[in-house]
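Field log, afternoon session.

UNIT: design team B
ACTIVITY: writing a sequence onto a fixed backbone
BACKBONE:
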């Protein structure tokens, strides 16, 4: 019997109703599918029932990778690697649909890696991913709300995001201590172009480093009090980081790049 490893943040999804809800979220018939962290293959089986063209799974755990190879034979391609070290764009020629019951301890790191490395031509049609509910709430948070922050800004830059459902702990083995949420991410057709995404990461980090403080200090740190930027973007330095909407942060990243070009 394979036991979940706490060190890898493993919680195996066992609820058939939730498995069906995940695989019914989009049409996957005859599509190329990438599954992250398949564990013992419960979601993998549900995906195969929908008859995809190809199914690639990435599993870091050596024992689980061998288990998947033994149990699914040639139905799937198993990549026994850490998702954080994989270049997904080299795995397939087609755009893919991605499913992932992401390890809670690195879920935001995986998402940030994908979004900040996205090129103009998206390598996926959509992402269907599971997170801790608290993390999901931060991803979909609107500005002027307590959950709004770096994750909201970075995730919503190039992607439209919707919540599919919340999931209770008893859907997993072992049971996590928190609720989970399932989100679906679609590429945006139009978004503001930022030359170097690391600039967006830097700006949001500095602004939200002290999220309850006013904007004056982080703005001066980045823009040396440049009044032209304030006037152009209509920013009041007496506001707090959560009071600036998504588009303002993207424009700030562009202004930051312009000042340094």
């Amino acid at each position: 019997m394979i036991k979940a490893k706490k060190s890898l943040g493993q919680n195996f999804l066992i609820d058939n109703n939730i498995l069906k809800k995940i695989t019914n979220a989009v049409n996957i018939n005859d599509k190329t599918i990438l599954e992250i962290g398949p564990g013992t293959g419960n979601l993998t089986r549900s995906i195969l029932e929908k008859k995809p063209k190809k199914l690639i799974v990435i599993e870091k755990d050596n024992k689980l990778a061998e288990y998947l190879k033994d149990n699914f034979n040639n139905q799937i391609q198993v990549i026994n690697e850490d998702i954080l070290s994989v270049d997904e764009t080299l795995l397939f020629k087609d755009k893919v649909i991605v499913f992932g019951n992401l390890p809670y301890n690195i879920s935001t790191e995986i998402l940030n890696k994908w979004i900040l490395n996205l090129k103009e031509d998206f390598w996926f049609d959509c992402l269907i991913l599971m997170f801790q509910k608290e993390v999901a709430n931060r991803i979909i948070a609107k500005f002027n709300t307590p959950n709004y922050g770096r994750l909201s800004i970075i995730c919503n830059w190039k992607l439209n995001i919707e919540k599919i459902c919340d999931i209770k702990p008893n859907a997993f083995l072992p049971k996590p201590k928190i609720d989970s949420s399932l989100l679906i991410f679609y590429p945006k057709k139009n978004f503001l172009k930022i030359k170097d995404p690391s600039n967006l990461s830097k700006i949001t980090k500095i602004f939200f480093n002290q999220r309850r403080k006013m904007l004056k200090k982080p703005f001066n740190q980045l823009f040396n009090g440049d009044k032209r930027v304030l006037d152009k973007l209509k920013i009041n330095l007496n506001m707090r980081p959560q009071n600036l909407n998504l588009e303002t942060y993207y424009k700030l990243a562009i202004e930051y790049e312009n000042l340094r070009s």
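LOG NOTE: Strands lie at 12-13, 32-36, 54-58, 77-79, 96-101, 124-132, 159-167, 172-173, 180-187.
NEXT ACTIVITY: expression trials, pending approval
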